[in-house]
Structure prediction request, 299 residues.
Amino acid sequence: MEIYSFYKSWAMTLVELKTDGLEMRVNGLIFGALFWLALFTLQGFGLSKMAKNVSLKHRWMAFVPFVNVYYIGKLTGECDVFGQKMKRAGLYTMIAKILLALLYGSVIAIELYLYVTAGLPDHYNEFNYAPQWYNLSGFSASAYNFYALSGHFISIVQLGFEVLLLILLMGLFKKYAPRSYVWLAILAVFLPVSRYIIVFVLRNRKAVDYAAYERARREEFLRRQQQYRNMYGDPRGPYGPYGPYGPYPPYGNQQNTNAQNGGQDRPEDDPFAEFSDCSGSNNAYREDGNSSSDDDFFN
Prediction:
């Protein structure tokens, strides 16, 4: 797949520069194959080292095209798919990759064959720069018809392959990068070049049991929470039950505040009490119109 991606990008560049031709396309195919071989070897060393660390046999499988995908499944074991276990994710991914490689290979072979027999294309598709030939006959016409329809088959098979590959890589990275396995798997699927590099970088890490890793994380969280409670003496945090404003809530019930201060509700002092008509006031009047005071000077 990486060879085809490089070849396709090379071909689009040739079309843009108006230097398209059989020789240039063959050169792009060779360069793409060499680039893929370097990355594939890098990944092979990474998988071989991972297998050695877990005492997995047949490490030569890490350097065999297509078989190495099956070997990743051996390293991964069971994969989790929405809570369900998939036991042969490596095998299914390998089969999908073989089908996709056959389709890509047939497309490249037909393109090069038509460049040899029919010459340069008559036109290019404006969307994907695919070459187009007119007035073909015989085997060339049949080959071109398959070539024109191959895009639909490739889309379906590629979608299935990418889903299976995502499941497989998530299972692998769960063991070697449990904290970031999701985004690493997504990156490896949508940027295939990164997959080879990631596997090589993770080669020296020890495989972990993800379920045990999750339990350890939960236990660590509970331990830190308990330390936090012990530090402040109250499970509600450093401010206790009253919040950051101390023992008196800023907008609380006055009755609750009085209860905290003494237990009895006390009316607030009235600054105009001496002018009121209450009997307890010093300047209050009797019912007969005579004023009275506490010392009753006018009796």
Residues 209-243 form one domain. Strands lie at 79-81, 84-86, 123-124, 131-132. The mean pLDDT is 81. Residues 139-176 form the longest helix (38 residues).
